[in-house]
Amino acid sequence: MKKEFDFNRIGKRMPYTTPEGFLDNLEKQVWEQVKDEVKPSKPKRNYSLWYFISGGLVAASVTLLLVFNILPGHQKPDDFEAFEQAFSNLSHADQDYLLTVYQDDLFMNQ
């Protein structure tokens, strides 16, 4: 039972009806609702970006303090004192050898 569908048989009548002025009234109601939602408001601040940047700056500051030993109470010993202490811990034979090498150094004696 195949019948071909014929649009001409249907005609141009609408199967639905609406009250007079319904679409105009609907348009006004929609614009009223949209107008309230679209009003420009105070710009919101992005606090998460602020926290991210300030946290990074704090981490960088702490890293710099640790790398350069700027923290109070933790002073680096003088290099010459450390050298003197290491030299005194050597045996007399090692001390003599280092002094001989130092005296024969080509670049130091120019």
3D architecture notes:
This protein has 110 residues and is mainly alpha-helical. Among the domains are: 47-72, no CATH class; 77-110. 58% of the residues lie in helices and 0% in strands. It has five helices and no strands. It is rod-shaped, with a radius of gyration of 45 Å.
SSE blueprint:
Elements: H1 7-10, H2 22-38, H3 47-67, H4 79-88, H5 92-103
What is the first-to-last residue Cα distance?
Answer: 118 Å
Helix percent reads 55-70%
Question: What kind of oligomer do you see?
Answer: single chain
What does the largest sheet look like? none
Total DSSP E strands:
0
Average pLDDT works out at: 79
How many DSSP helices? 5
Report low-confidence residues grouped into runs of 5 or more: none
Shape: rod-shaped
Strand-pairing-aware structural class: mainly alpha
Estimated radius of gyration:
45 Å
Percent in strands: under 5%
* Helix and strand pattern: HHHHH
